[in-house]
From TrEMBL:
GO terms for cellular component: mitochondrial inner membrane. It comes from the Eukaryota. InterPro entries: AAA+_ATPase (IPR003593), AAA_lid_BCS1 (IPR057495), ATPase_AAA_core (IPR003959), ATPase_AAA_CS (IPR003960), BCS1_N (IPR014851), Mitochondrial_chaperone_BCS1 (IPR050747), P-loop_NTPase (IPR027417). Its main location: mitochondrion. Keywords: ATP-binding, Hydrolase, Membrane, Mitochondrion, Mitochondrion inner membrane, Nucleotide-binding, Transmembrane, Transmembrane helix. Residues 279-411 form the AAA+ ATPase domain. The lineage of its organism: Eukaryota, Fungi, Dikarya, Ascomycota, Pezizomycotina. It is a single-pass membrane protein. GO terms for molecular function: ATP binding; ATP hydrolysis activity. This is BCS1 N terminal-domain-containing protein. Pfam families: AAA, AAA_lid_BCS1, BCS1_N. It catalyses: ATP + H2O = ADP + phosphate + H(+). Residues 54-248 form the BCS1 N-terminal domain. Belongs to the AAA ATPase family. BCS1 subfamily. It comes from Neohortaea acidophila.
Length: 491
């Protein structure tokens, strides 16, 4: 009661003053409007702590969305203006591109004293091209005919980013390792990416064409020998010079017969496919040791411009699945050579009612790899053996082995051809050859000595016609009693 009286007295005093009622109403309305929200915002924005925090938050949001916009814009610009090409280490062109980059860098080096021969634009381009900054060394060892070892060094682009110029286009090259992954050979997994303007996207085809031509030049006139390592084929040493086709002397007409059959098969792909016949061909070369079976395959591959993939069925670790995998992934333009097929099953035992097993590969596994449902096509296989009687008929039937060729000991015609190859320039009238053949006939060597033994005799008596004639009679004796072989060993 007393509080109400006091309040009324206070209000009366305020309203009694001139303009007092209006001031009171303004203050009350100001407080009331603040409670509604407008006054609150004015107070918040007038607070320096609030405005500072709000400003920082606004700047952070602007930076975040601005960077996102720049990134999205750069990605869009990259998609519109740039083109990328990635090459993995598993691809055959990986090493081609590395060698091409090295050659391209060397071509772009400014020749000393050659500035006047270059135009102004070419000179400036060569000066401004950054080139390779990270290099990696590759070491290769080769043996000379004398037996010494030579070491060759080559530089290839290392890991990192490089800039090269191809024509008027600049290329950003990035070689990098992908994580810590390794392939079956223990080599780290790597990639090479090439980036250029979308306008110059056509240069990739030109680059790969040049890189491939460079790779072919390295093996031109040579035969690449592949052997197995882990789960794949790998090149065994440097490529070998092609062996001349006529360097292996077989019985008259035999070499040409096999060559004609292989060439006919290579040109009959459509004929096989139209008739639903698996497009593969198998050959079996059998006969005594030293009659030129493996040498003929090497000479034939050189004649056909093919490579050779050598595989031993008795090698440790070779299983049925691995054998089938290797035959399914034979390198292109490559002849498969299975040497000494009988040796793989010389100690085979009956495993069960379905087949035999050898050291690693089962007999049924070999048959399925040669002519099974999952066996490879577009393949030429040569199989060699010294004992054809040890091979089952199921292995050498048509479809697995399409041509069987016997390479026997040297006939009189083969002896004459070998003589001409070694002594034609020293025995122009042919009298030495007649004496040599007469001595071979007298020693009963016709058909009883291998061509390898004859070649050994001729190599020991290089340019010595009389020595070859005199020692030919000893070819039929045991190696321990052969004088020229004892002399060669002592040397």
């Amino acid at each position: 009661m007393d509080k109400d009286v006091a309040t009324d007295h206070a209000l009366g005093a305020l309203t009694a003053r001139p303009g007092g009622r209006e001031d009171v109403m303004q203050q009350l309305s100001a407080v009331g409007s603040g409670a509604g929200g407008a006054g609150v915002f004015s107070q918040l924005f007038s607070n320096p702590f609030f405005t500072a925090g709000f400003g920082l938050a606004a700047l952070g949001a602007a930076a975040r969305y601005g960077s996102l916009g720049v990134r999205r814009g750069s990605e869009l610009l990259r998609r519109r203006m740039l083109v990328d090409l990635e090459i993995t280490k598993h691809d055959d062109s990986y090493h081609w591109i590395l060698n091409w980059m090295t050659a391209q860098y060397q071509r772009q080096l400014l020749p000393v004293g050659k500035r006047r021969d270059l135009g102004t634009v070419q000179y400036l381009l060569r000066r401004l091209t950054p080139g390779l900054r990270h290099l990696q060394i590759n070491t290769a060892k080769t043996k000379t005919p004398s037996g010494s070892e030579q070491t060759a060094f080559s530089l290839v682009p290392g890991h990192g980013r490089h800039i090269l110029r191809y024509g008027n286009a600049f290329l950003l090259v990035n070689r990098e390792r992908v994580g810590k992954s390794f392939d079956v050979n223990g080599q780290p997994f790597e990639t090479i990416s090439l980036t250029t303007l979308y306008y110059y996207r056509h240069i990739f085809e030109d680059i790969f064409r040049e890189a491939h031509e460079m790779a072919l030049q390295g093996t031109e006139g040579k035969t690449v020998i592949y052997t197995t390592r882990n789960m794949s084929w790998e090149q065994s040493g440097p490529p070998k010079r092609r062996r001349p086709f006529d360097s292996v002397v077989l019985e008259e007409g035999m070499s040409e017969k096999i060559l004609a059959d292989v060439q006919e098969f290579l040109h009959a792909r459509t004929w096989y496919l139209d008739r639903g016949i698996p497009y593969r061909r198998g050959y079996l070369l059998h006969g005594p040791p030293g009659t030129g079976k493996t040498s003929f395959v090497q000479a034939l591959a050189g004649k056909l411009d093919f490579n050779i993939a050598m595989l031993s069925l008795s090698q440790r670790g070779l299983t049925d699945d691995l054998l089938n995998h290797l035959l399914l992934n034979v390198p292109p333009k490559t002849v498969v050579l299975l040497e000494d097929a009988d040796a793989a099953f010389s100690n085979r035992k009956q495993r069960d009612s379905e087949g035999y097993s050898g050291a690693n590969v089962t007999y049924s596994g070999l048959l399925n790899a040669l002519d099974g449902v999952a066996s490879a096509e577009e393949r030429v296989i040569f199989m060699t053996t010294n004992h054809i009687d040890r091979l089952d008929d199921a292995l050498i039937r048509p479809g697995r082995i399409d041509m069987t060729v016997y390479l026997g000991n040297a006939t009189e015609g083969q002896m004459a051809q070998l003589w001409d190859r070694f002594y034609a320039q020293h025995d122009v009238d042919g009298r030495g050859k007649q004496r040599f053949l007469a001595n071979a006939q007298a020693a009963d060597l016709i058909g009883n000595v291998s061509t390898a033994a004859l070649q050994g005799l001729f190599l020991y008596n290089k340019d010595d016609v009389e020595g070859a004639i005199r020692l030919v009679s000893q070819l039929g004796k045991s190696p321990q009693s052969t004088s020229y072989q004892r002399a060669a060993t002592s040397q």
